[in-house]
Specification:
The protein is built from two helices and no strands. With about 60 residues, the chain is an all-alpha fold. It has a single domain (about 1-60), classed as Dockerin domain (Type 1 dockerin domain), CATH 1.10.1330. Helix 1 (about 20-35) packs antiparallel against helix 2 (about 50-60). About 20% of the residues are buried. The chain binds calcium ion (2 copies).
């Protein structure tokens, strides 16, 4: 499991310790709104975009 420097789970945007559709929904909203939050940059390339959505889907909590 990837962990952010702050101790949170990377990709867990709503802080419930799982990566699921709710987090994807938050990420999609951020992409749509052009919100460039560091927390939402799951693949750490400096942008919040569709690549992060893809990353999130690949890292869904089983
Ligand atoms: Ca979550
Ligand atoms: Ca990114």
């Amino acid at each position: 499991m990837p962990w952010a420097a702050g101790g949170g789970l990377v990709g867990d945007l709503d802080g419930d310790d799982t990566i699921d559709l709710r987090d994807l929904r938050l990420l999609m909203a951020a992409i749509r709104n052009g919100t460039n939050l560091e927390d939402y940059d799951c693949n750490a390339d400096g942008k919040v975009d569709a690549a992060d959505a893809r990353w999130l889907i690949l890292h869904f909590t089983p």
